Amino acid sequence: MADPPGCCRPCATCLLCLYSCQWITAKKEKRKGLRTTKCDCSWFLFLFCVFLFTLVWLYFAIIILNDFHNFNEFIFKQQKLWLDWSLVLLIATAVLITYSTALLVLALCLQICGQPLKLHWLHKTLLIITALVVAAAFTGLGIKWAEEWKSARISLQETGPFLHIGIVGGMTLLAWPLASVIYRTRNTGLKVFLLLAYCAVMIALYLAPLGITSPCIMEENQLPPKPALVGHRGAPMLAPENTLMSLQKAVDCNVQVFETDVMVSADGVPFLMHDEKLTRTTDVQKVFPERADMNSTAFNWTDLQQLNAGRWFLERKPFPTVQSLSGGDRALVDEQRIPSLEQALEAVKESNISIMFDLRPENHSDYWSFVNATLDVILKSGIPLQQVLWLPDGFREQVKERAPGIQQIYGRKRLQDEEPLQHVNLRYQDMSFEEIRQYRRDNISVNLYVVNQPWLFSVLWCSGVSSVTTNACQVLKEMKHPIWLLPSSTYLMIWIVVDCVSFLMILWAFLLLKKCSQRRQPVGKCVDTSSPLPGGSPPRLAARSSGA
């Protein structure tokens, strides 16, 4: 077995054993006449596709972390089981991508070392399982969480310039095993096909920046002001959601608006609660076990005050930040109760911030009485009405008549032939960057929810959004600048340099491997390179004509 320069025989043997799960030495390989067959080539191609598949899933897994708390809440409502499923997702994804990457690296090293690609049946089975698991994950994402496809589109505009550099780098490194294949085969058709396909891909990558757009490619002096922060149910990473402690933590994070949800008790007292049932954020199953599955609005205010609204936060740890709470904060968490709207308005007024809320449930048969009870509390509280941001669509006109000073926030885009809206509140997936900029030019305030990851906050900042609703106010308040901001001239220079360096490295790889392939062909010997994937079979010595 003639090994290429720099590829020692023991190393080649170890690589082959890891890939084929058999201890095959050079002598055994020669004796058995091992060679790479068309079937082996097909499995290598399948391995490469599985690697790309898992790599794309890894990208998606990182993107959907921004919204994963919603998934945790959904699972709890369905199964009554709380678990941070993001950890399960990341661990499973890391295992899949590590396995497929390691196997691909082994295959490429074997190819460069001129070894046969004999993939063991166990690896084949695991690759099929990997492909099925990732396919199931994508299918579930498309069925149950389709809006995340929009999140991926947004992320591509944020990460596009850097993904381009990474892909160009990966394809440049691929030139080494590709050149090894081309110089070992005598199949002209295969040579031409591989070269044309590789050249087409590289040309497309070199020109890809022509189609890459990102709102963060701009001059420094064009950067819009930093978006204001809206505390989603307060500061739910630092305190139990929709509690007075959460409100105060949000104030400490310099939020301008406290976003919450309001329900009305059976005896007409508006209080803060997001879920229709009390099981997730209170100890209702312990205090009122026979009524635990009843709707929140079925409880009177006296009963609601008996419930603890903080202990669940310490027990279930909905966010990793719970681990870092101080002893004093933990004691304060344990004392939290369900706050009334009146108490929340008083805290908001003292903190000089605004409050924005939904009134739930909007499909309730007595919803008009809920609206009246809520307005009564607001008007009696003495809070300046411009600090109250009204989200519910139901009976909006009646609210305008009774309390015209309240700011109306719309959960939809503006319509044609409609008087201009002043404030809109939408999911971040529902507005394009062009729409955000158009609304900004038209002096329409745009708030997008829920934005937790710095990369997403950065791209919305560059787009010019007015404010964002967030669970991670303690993280976003520390950001003084978007993660990256590039002038177009700088990006053009990076583009040209990356393409030139890539081209030179590819040229060097082909020239160097051509020289090596010429050196390792002994005089008087011919190399049998008729296998479909050349380099997979060891060179066979032809009989010398003089010794025949």
Automatic annotation (TrEMBL):
Query: What membrane topology does the annotation report for this chain?
Result: Multi-pass membrane protein
Q: Which UniProt keywords apply?
A: Glycoprotein, Hydrolase, Membrane, Transmembrane, Transmembrane helix
Residues covered by the GP-PDE domain: 227-480
Among the GO biological process terms of this entry, one is:
lipid metabolic process
- SUPFAM superfamilies noted in UniProt: PLC-like phosphodiesterases
Please give the family membership noted in the entry.
Belongs to the glycerophosphoryl diester phosphodiesterase family.
Source organism, top-level taxon: Eukaryota
Name the PANTHER family on file. Answer: GLYCEROPHOSPHOINOSITOL INOSITOLPHOSPHODIESTERASE GDPD2, GLYCEROPHOSPHORYL DIESTER PHOSPHODIESTERASE
Q: Where is it chiefly localized?
A: membrane
Region Disordered, as annotated, extends over 524-548
Pfam families associated with the record: GDPD
Protein known as: Glycerophosphodiester phosphodiesterase domain containing 2
Name the InterPro entries for this protein: GP_PDE_dom (IPR030395), PLC-like_Pdiesterase_TIM-brl (IPR017946)
Q: Where are the transmembrane segments?
A: 41-65, 85-113, 125-143, 163-183, 192-212, 492-513
* PROSITE patterns in the cross-refs: GP_PDE (PS51704)
Any one Gene Ontology molecular-function term assigned to this protein's record: glycerophosphodiester phosphodiesterase activity
An example GO CC term for this entry is:
plasma membrane
In which compartments does the protein localize? Answer: Membrane
